[in-house]
Design goal:
By secondary structure, this protein is an alpha/beta fold. Helix content is 37%, strand content 25%. It is built from twelve helices and 15 strands. The strands form three sheets. The protein has a seven-stranded mixed sheet, with helices on both faces. Strands 2-1-4-5 form a four-stranded antiparallel sheet, covered by helices on one side. The chain has a four-stranded antiparallel sheet with strand order 12-13-11-14, with helices on one face. The N terminus and C terminus are likely disordered.
Length: 334
């Protein structure tokens, strides 16, 4: 996502907003006053360890569970006063496929069409359209038990779309899928956003999934949002980024080591690690120093922390102060 698209996202209407969202079960505080603002036509990913409150958040926003406190609007409707209007705007896919194993793929879709009060002809058109979009046409008359795990998850998502929701909640949608099936699901999810302007609220424990799909990510821990921003913004919060320079001979290596005094050197491989934040400006500064001194590097690679580093650093510890990247400093390289 570039700076222009980030600015465009900021001006979009809000699909989901929550202010001071709280939920407890007995003495256990699950959500401790979280705030969310998700623009229309974007993918929002909520990350967090098991028990952090991800599924509870989805259940509240999708009207399946009542919050203890908080102001919540979904699809332009107040969740507390008009939950029926919210339900008409949303679709929900849980962690496990909710298809009926006694029916065929087509019959599952037709059943969902009936639940949405579509006419017989319209229901069949909608089922055929979704079977084609999700490449399930050949499996239309097969029993669900005969389908692979990936095909069942695709069918589950197709069933969620029968009512043409504008907001979709996906609670760990690729759990248990093999890498190929997971990537197919990613393409389908991203297509819903780019081609139809659907808003996707995604919870996941696959950090690569959030990195690939999400326009904005929030990290949930101990019932609170501990950080949020784009994937690149979150990565820049974590130390450890560097530019790795490799040199062809010892003379060039020694000269560079003298210039970059703060670099970590490896004399055996003739490499230097120059600390940096992974930004274009940081890389340009390193290149400018090399150019101005006449030192030549054989190769150069940029290493930045990934979402695994973000997750491990920000979760599983006493609750820190929430970190949000200021809007004025946002700069994305996705």
């Amino acid at each position: 996502m570039n700076t222009a698209s980030t600015a465009a996202t900021a001006t979009r209407a809000v699909a989901i907003s929550a202010l001071g969202l709280r939920k407890s079960y007995g003495e256990k505080v699950v959500l401790d006053g979280i705030d969310l603002r998700i623009p229309e036509g974007t993918v929002f990913a909520l990350l967090g360890p098991n028990g952090a409150g991800k599924t509870t958040t989805v259940e509240i926003l999708s009207t399946l569970t009542t919050a203890d406190a908080g102001e919540i609007r979904v699809g332009g409707h107040d969740l507390a006063t008009d939950p029926g209007a919210v339900r008409r705007r949303i679709g929900v896919t849980g962690q496990f496929a909710a298809v009926d194993g006694l029916l065929t793929a087509e019959e599952n879709l037709l059943l969902m069409a009936d639940l949405h009060h579509l006419g017989r002809a319209e229901g069949r058109r909608r089922a055929a359209e979704l079977l084609e979009r999700f490449e399930l046409t050949e499996a239309a008359r097969k029993g669900v038990t005969a389908l692979s795990g990936g095909m069942r998850r695709k069918l589950d998502l197709a069933m969620t779309l029968v009512g043409r929701p504008r907001i979709i909640f996906l609670d760990e949608p690729t759990t248990g899928l093999d890498p190929r099936s997971r990537r197919v699901m990613w393409e389908l999810i991203r297509g819903l956003v780019t081609e139809q302007g659907v808003t996707v609220f995604l919870t996941t424990q696959y950090l690569e999934e959030a990195d690939r799909l999400a326009d904005h990510i929030a990290v949930l821990d101990h019932g609170g949002i501990v950080a949020q921003g784009t994937a690149e913004e979150l990565k820049r919060l974590i130390p450890g980024g560097h530019v790795r320079l490799r040199f062809a001979d010892e003379a060039q290596f020694t000269a560079a080591a003298g210039i970059f005094g703060i670099a970590t050197r490896d004399d055996e491989s003739l490499t230097l690690q120059v600390p940096g934040d992974g930004s274009v400006a940081g890389l340009r500064a390193v290149l400018d120093v090399l150019d101005s001194t006449g030192v030549e590097a054989e190769s150069l690679t940029v290493h930045t922390p990934d979402l695994d580093d973000v997750f491990l650093t920000l979760t599983g510890r006493p609750r820190p102060t929430a970190t949000t990247v200021p809007a004025a400093s946002k700069e994305s390289h996705r």
